[in-house]
Amino acid sequence: MAETRTEPVVVIGLGRFGTALALELVSRGTEVLGIDHRHKVVQALSGRLPHVITADSTDIEALRQLGIAEFHRAVVAIGTDIQASILTTSLLSELGIPDIWAKAISSQHSNILTRVGAHHVVAPEHDMGERVAHLLSGRILDYVEVDADFAVIKTTPPRDIVGVPLRESRARSKWGVTVVAVKPQAALPGGAPRTFTYATPDTVLAYGDLILVVGTVDNVERFATSD
Ligand code: ADP
Where does the RCK N-terminal domain start and stop, copy by copy (predicted)? Predict the structure, then answer.
């Protein structure tokens, strides 16, 4: 069967991160098996998650009985109990799950998770801290680092590129960034909501328009802190 993004996912550890992840997946139509060893947590979620079970994920027999080996994707959302997180990840690897995601709470934790078989490691607290630091600077309204040194930001245009077609603006030559989409601030007749559309070389930006800009981290920062 071809791999699709709607294949079932097992989410192990239903703390704040695991619960938010599981509920979001379910709301997007993905089948989720949620597992937590605290019965109270499982009970509290049973009305919102169609498949949620009390089990200890450090017990390989329990994992086998639940048929976890049949899953293509698993997320280890245990953070605080590092030992349980590492052991669970290594057991999922032993069961041959092809796509294991794990949450880390430190860089050492992240390294170990990779060594014991995690294919993807996420560090939500660390990443969110970095992200908020960017949101606090200049006009950056949203920030996503898509690679080690490359980011997409939501911002408003600096004076230099307002009122001229993008092809004539100095977005590339002065800041080394590319404006990829724009959501004009000016209302549409009848008050219909504005949406983002792709920017073209003919796009003319106005003050207060929302724009999506891509470039290296340094360049998008410089762009969003100039006036
Ligand atoms: P968050 O910061 O996202 O709330 P936590 O690490 O505090 O993350 O929560 C992780 C969840 O994982 C808790 O609900 C905890 O009961 C669960 N958990 C911890 N160890 C195990 C285990 N061995 N088996 C199953 N669930 C576990």
Answer: 6-128
